[in-house]
TrEMBL record:
Compartments reported by the entry: Cell membrane
Keyword Transmembrane helix (UniProt): yes
Organism the protein comes from: Kitasatospora herbaricolor
Database matches in InterPro entries: MMPL_dom, Mycobact_MmpL, SSD
Annotated TM spans: 171-191, 198-218, 224-246, 275-297, 303-327, 369-388, 522-541, 548-569, 589-613, 634-654, 660-682
Protein known as: MMPL family transporter
Keywords: Cell membrane, Membrane, Transmembrane, Transmembrane helix
Domain SSD: from-to ranges: 216-326
Recorded topology in the membrane: Multi-pass membrane protein
Entries under PROSITE patterns matching the protein: SSD
Spans annotated as Disordered: 713-735
Recorded family membership: Belongs to the resistance-nodulation-cell division (RND) (TC 2.A.6) family. MmpL subfamily.
Length: 735
């Protein structure tokens, strides 16, 4: 790290220009080639995927996305001549629009059931030529525009379906800017220097900018979800600002201690820079751990997020030293520069409040540890009612056309009309067709089924479809039970001894399959990243207890994150106020992403806290002093880092996107609790109780593990005490 720091400092202008060139070059490439995001959630081993594959092979025209145009009249009937003529004209225009394969009107023989019993609501099925995520956004927006032109004062026209929902979703926006401004304010208050506050922001923006643009280019070579850039920005801004913050803080201490700018930069990179590199590695490993799940939808997000984090680390250890060299003493506040000129070198002390708090935790560790555990347990309680699934348009903001279409459909045709199941059958001969007809009759008597409609099979056609409308909404637990009942009881009975093969598919079944696959693989995923995290911590700090404490804290943090998410989004405690729609299940892939992100971030704070304790332990071999000094000296900067990261995450809550809001709420609250309750209370309390055992590692294991220095070269002399331990009141560590 020393050689890299010296080179970047000496060639600071070249380093800055190289980063500018990288940004401009990637931006030019992105402008030339564009992006090719894909949100396909297909999983070949699931029954819904088999149904879709069969449909594509035998009936390609029916395999595209099906959306709906819904209209409701407040006076008269949808069959009134004026209303019928107006909507028939709109549907005819839609049928000739780009990417539209066909339109099934309620006034056609096939759409006879598409008018409500009271005659005030009707809908048309718009069949697109491809999957919802493959249809150009402009084509979907054109369909929306054609339909909405038919609106009048007495005729409400709305659109629903996955393609329409994708077209009205806008990722990103002002969220990143709000988070950056909030972070800048916090760092200005901490550093009392606008230059010092701006450096972490500039560093993070450079890393995130290259990462997001690189993600767009990466989408040409692999499947990358359209949400990946937003998640990359969410994680990258948080960790990027924090990483640079730790290095800037260490550099300022070096300057106040009388080091030259270059020597201070080198010392900062060789100490905090190493911790940043190690912390970034843990985040990248946790994110790439998602690759073991073998799900293409998550693979792209994992790689793109890991790429963004990696680039923020690269910016912190290259671009930041160059900018520190350019600013020289301007990273200090005016008062500090004046003090340095008048009084000479001095120790830049940590805030007294954290030093005093560290002494209080040392004096009564057991009581404070119990309080911390109770706080985390209380926040995590809702996690025991966690239900994974896929939110539907009923969870969208009330102002969206998809939510309004959903409500119109539910009122006119029942909740299940918003998520019908599609049974795809292989029936090549007369016996199979007879069995299929018998199955259709049987389906009408199955509990939870509101409506059954089968499409007539033409001569020579071997693929048949049956549309099953549940009596409950797509996200309902009863609908999931219905899917299971159809697959495990109803369909097998119809297939027995007939040669008929039936698969239960459709968007609702696909979402249920996706959730089931992830839930099944989640324990293995958690075990692998926990094991890797333990191994890394063991290598870094030559200890058995420190990694175990870190893993336990990370699990508590995850519990708090999911507890908050369940309370807000599943129980509905404020989700409407956030613009994230009504209560509903938690997105199936959210746990995987949040676990990966939180595990990495929690390990970051553990590394920064323990590395300072370990540095002090190597000087004195006094556990009480090591824990107290590390706790007191890192308290201010770790807390500031957590507040900054929480601000960045919280800025994404109000973007109107339920999925992103789930990440924002869970991560923001979890990071704050992780630092304020766990790292600043529970971890030091436990380490005081365990004493010198914190730093014990069996000799045989010590010989097996590679030796890596997270702290770099130790300072030439022991640091000054944060707060001297009172001689008159000896500390009772047993209390």
């Amino acid at each position: 790290m020393s050689a890299l720091a010296r080179w970047c400092h000496r060639h600071r202008l070249v380093t800055v220009l190289l980063w500018l060139g990288l940004l401009v070059g990637l931006g030019a490439a992105s402008g030339a080639f564009g992006t090719k995001y894909s949100d396909s959630m297909s999983m070949p081993a699931t029954e819904s995927s088999k149904a879709l594959d069969l449909l594509k092979a035998g009936m390609p025209a029916a395999a595209g996305d099906t959306d709906t145009v819904v209209w409701h009249t407040t006076g008269g009937s949808v069959n009134d001549p004026a209303t019928k003529d107006r909507m028939s004209k709109a549907l005819e225009e839609i049928s000739t629009a780009p990417s539209v394969a066909s339109v099934v009107s309620p006034w056609s023989p096939q759409g006879a059931a598409q008018i409500s019993k009271d005659g005030t609501t009707a809908y048309a099925q718009v069949n697109f030529t491809g999957n919802a995520r493959e249809i150009p956004k402009a084509d979907v927006e054109h369909v929306v525009e054609l339909a909405q032109q038919a609106r009048t004062d007495g005729l409400d026209v709305q659109l629903g379906g996955q393609a329409v929902q994708n077209s009205e979703s806008e990722m990103g926006g002002a969220s990143e800017l709000i988070g950056i401004v909030a972070a800048l304010i916090v760092m200005t208050l901490v550093f009392r220097s606008l230059w010092a506050a701006a450096l972490p922001v500039l560093t993070a923006v450079a890393g995130v900018g290259t990462g997001v643009i690189g993600t767009g280019l990466l989408s040409h070579g692999m499947s990358v979800a359209s949400v990946a850039p937003t998640l990359g920005a969410l994680v990258g801004l948080g960790v990027g600002i924090d990483y640079a913050l730790f290095i800037v803080n260490r550099h300022r201490k070096g300057l106040m201690a009388g080091l030259s700018v270059q020597d201070s930069v080198v010392r900062a990179l060789n100490t905090s820079g190493r911790a940043v590199l190690f912390a970034g590695l843990t985040v990248v490993i946790a994110l790439l751990g998602m690759l073991i799940l073998g799900i293409g939808f998550l693979n792209g997000m994992a790689i793109s997020a890991a790429l963004t984090v990696g680039l923020t680390v690269l910016a912190a250890i290259t671009l930041l030293p160059a900018m520190l060299g350019m600013l020289k003493l301007k990273v200090l506040s005016r008062a500090q520069r004046r003090q340095l000129a008048e009084q000479g070198p001095t120790e830049l002390q940590s805030a007294g409040v954290w030093a005093r708090w560290a002494l209080r935790v040392q004096s009564r560790p057991t009581g404070k540890a119990l309080v911390a555990l109770l706080v985390m347990a209380a926040v995590a309680v809702p996690v025991f009612s966690l239900r994974l699934g896929s939110s539907d348009a009923g969870n969208n903001p009330k102002s969206s056309t998809t939510r309004q279409a959903y409500d119109l459909m539910a009122d006119g045709f029942g909740a299940g009309s918003n998520g019908p199941l599609l049974l795809v059958a292989e029936a090549p001969g007369a016996p199979e067709r007879a069995a299929l007809a018998k199955l259709v009759t049987e389906l009408k008597t199955v509990p939870g089924v509101a409506q059954v409609a089968s499409a007539p099979m033409k001569d020579g056609q071997s693929i048949g479809t049956v549309r099953v409308v549940p009596s409950t909404s797509p996200q309902s637990e009863q609908t999931s039970d219905l899917i299971t009942d159809l697959r495990e009881r109803v369909v097998p009975q119809a297939e027995a001894g007939t040669g008929l093969q039936v698969y239960v598919g459709g968007a609702t079944a696909t979402a249920a399959d996706f959730a089931d696959v992830l839930i099944a693989k989640l324990p293995v995923f958690i075990a692998i990243i926990v094991g890797l995290g333990c191994l890394l911590m063991m290598v870094a700090f030559r200890s058995l207890l420190v990694p175990l404490i870190g893993v336990a804290m990370n699990l508590l943090t995850m519990g708090a994150a999911f507890g908050a998410i369940v309370a807000v989004f599943q129980w509905g405690w404020g989700s409407e106020a956030l613009g994230a729609g009504a209560a509903g299940p938690i997105e199936a892939f959210a746990p995987v992403m949040i676990i990966a992100i939180l595990f990495g971030l929690s390990m970051d704070y553990q590394v920064f806290l323990i590395s300072r304790m370990h540095e002090e332990w190597t000087h004195t071999r006094d556990n009480r002093r090591a824990v107290r000094v590390g706790h007191g000296e890192t308290g201010q900067v770790i807390t500031a880092a957590a507040v900054i990261m929480a601000c960045v995450f919280a800025a994404f809550i109000f973007g109107g996107q339920r999925m992103i809001a789930e990440f924002g709420i869970g991560l923001a609250l979890a990071v704050l609790l992780d630092v304020l309750v766990l790292r600043m209370v529970l971890v030091p309390a436990l380490m005081h109780r365990f004493g010198a055992a914190n730093w014990w590692l069996p000799g045989w294991l010590d010989r097996l593990l590679p030796h890596v220095s997270v702290e770099g070269e130790p300072d030439p002399a022991p640091p000054l005490r944060v707060v001297p331990e009172p001689a008159s009141e000896p500390v009772d560590a047993t209390r």
